[in-house]
Every structure is written in C-alpha cells, then in structure tokens.
Write a structure and sequence with these properties.
about 240 residues, alpha+beta, 9 strands, about 20% helix, about 30% strand, Pyridox_Oxase, pyridoxal 5'-phosphate synthase, oxidoreductase
Length: about 240
C-alpha cells in the first residue's frame, strides 16, 4: 500500500485562506521559498517535468528539466530548440507538413518531503536571443560549448571496436572547442535558448490522509479591448477554486 500523506493533517490541511488570492505566480514564489529552505530536505526544488504533445498524432513526451527563471509572465527553462523532441512537438518540423507545432505544454513540480505538487499548463514562447544570451553567459564554458556541439536527440553512429557512438559526440565537441579557441565570448546558438511557459492554469496540491488531498486551481480570465475583466481594460485576472481530490 502507498504511504499516507500526514504532514498537513495537524495544521488542518491547505485552505483557500492560505493561498494568494490574486496570483499563482506569487503563490508559487511562496511554496518555492519553502521548498528551498535548507531544512526542507529538497536538494533541487527547481527540478520539474516538462510535457509536450506532438501533432497530429497527439503522442505525448515528458522529460525532467530545471526551472531557471520565474517572472510575472511565466516559467522559464533553457534547452535546444533545433533538433530536440520538444522542438518537434512545440514548433513542428517545417514546411513539409509532417508535424504541426503545438505550443501547449505543462510543467509538474513534485516536492515529496513537503507532500506538495504544482501543476502548470500554458502556452510556450521562445525568449529573444538577447534574453537567452544573458543566461547563457552564466554557464560554465563546457556547458556553452556543449550547447553548440550537441545535436540533441540525434542518433549517434557507433564507430570501430567497442565505441557505441560516444566518439562521434566527442568529435563534435572537439570541433566546437577549436572554433571558439582563445575566446570566452561565445554567442548563444540560434537553435538554443529560453522557453517561457505562460500559464493559463496552475494547480497547487497538498497531500492529505486517505487520498483526500487538498487541490486548488487558478485559471486565467483574459481581459479584452472593450473593458477587460471587471471593467479593467486589457488586464487578465485569475479565478481560484477548490477541486475534489
């Protein structure tokens, strides 16, 4: 049998009054700060699962990534968007019509010691090259070279003897090292950079006993040019509702 979630029971669980009434971004900041405390027992609270879906098949792919930035617009990760599976799912494969881009994506954060989960659903948008360069410059040189060298998700061809394909990757790295030899000013590749998930729906999940978990979901209500929401022209707001477990 699966273990019970008991940490929130003595505090009466998660209540609507515990959550920020207007913004899931502000609420995420609060939970992330708690997950980042040394005593929380969570080594990398920025770890999350990114899920995308390919069109027209609807086939879903998921992978673990790191959240690198969070701002009022959304959740930012960095990756290869040229040859990777996520690039195929999000942006399609070009003009041949074999794959249509699907910008809908989701993130899931799981902080087991706190018995908490956050689910984010929204549309993806690439950061500008200038924005990506700012983060790229903070990476160690080897990681910057690696971003140029790796044809992410491409099949590596085995060589002679016991080589299983790693030698091909190391060859690409050697070529890239030669290209940027003598300089630490390495430009961010055009195919690499930041991706912001702009949330439309964010769920905060607190484990409870007997699988009667507390779930609260924020959903975006879009404003419009003729008056917006509650008469506030052009502004978006968020609803907040409790969900059944």
């Amino acid at each position: 049998q699966a273990a019970q979630f008991l940490k929130a029971e003595t505090a009466g669980g998660l209540r609507r009054s515990d959550l920020d009434p207007s913004s899931p971004i502000a609420q995420f900041h609060a939970w992330y700060a708690a997950a980042s405390q040394p005593g929380a027992g969570i080594a990398h609270p920025e770890t999350c699962t990114l899920a995308t879906a390919q069109l027209p098949s609807g086939r879903v792919s998921a992978r673990v990534v790191y959240l690198k930035e969070l701002d009022p617009r959304g959740f930012v990760i960095y990756s290869n968007f040229g040859t990777s599976g996520k690039a195929r799912d999000l942006f399609g494969t070009g003009s041949d019509g074999s794959s249509t881009g699907n910008l809908w994506a989701s993130l899931v954060f799981w902080w087991e010691p706190l018995e908490r989960q956050v689910r984010v659903e929204g549309r993806a948008a690439r950061l500008t090259r200038e924005e990506s360069q700012v983060y790229y410059d903070t990476r160690v040189r080897g990681s910057r070279v690696g971003a140029w060298a790796s044809r992410q998700s491409a099949v590596l061809t085995p060589g002679e003897g016991s080589d299983d394909g790693r030698a091909q990757l190391e060859g690409w790295i050697k070529e890239t090292e030669g290209r940027f030899e003598g300089t630490d000013q390495i430009p961010v590749p055009e195919f690499w950079g930041g991706l912001r998930i702009v949330p439309e729906r964010v769920e905060f999940w607190q484990g409870r006993q007997n699988r009667l978990h507390d779930r609260f979901v924020y959903e975006r209500v879009h404003g419009d040019e003729t008056g917006g929401v509650d008469g506030l022209q052009g502004e978006d707001k968020w609803t907040l509702q409790r969900l059944s477990p």
